[in-house]
Structure prediction request, 71 residues.
Amino acid sequence: MCRELGCGESLEAFGSARFGKGSGSISLDDLACSGSENSLLQCPHSGLGNHDCGHHEDAGVTCAGYASGGF
Prediction:
């Protein structure tokens, strides 16, 4: 996620809505990223819009900071 956003390397990943629950539709579930992907969509997943979870399981990540070319 951090690489995709241009926010440096990922320092830590969290589950259980650590930064608060999201809202709206859930797009991705059962992600199995290796860490080398440039986009979350490159990670194996259960299919866009296919899920068996709720927002109480939302994931979050802490990034090192802005990488060159970030926003």
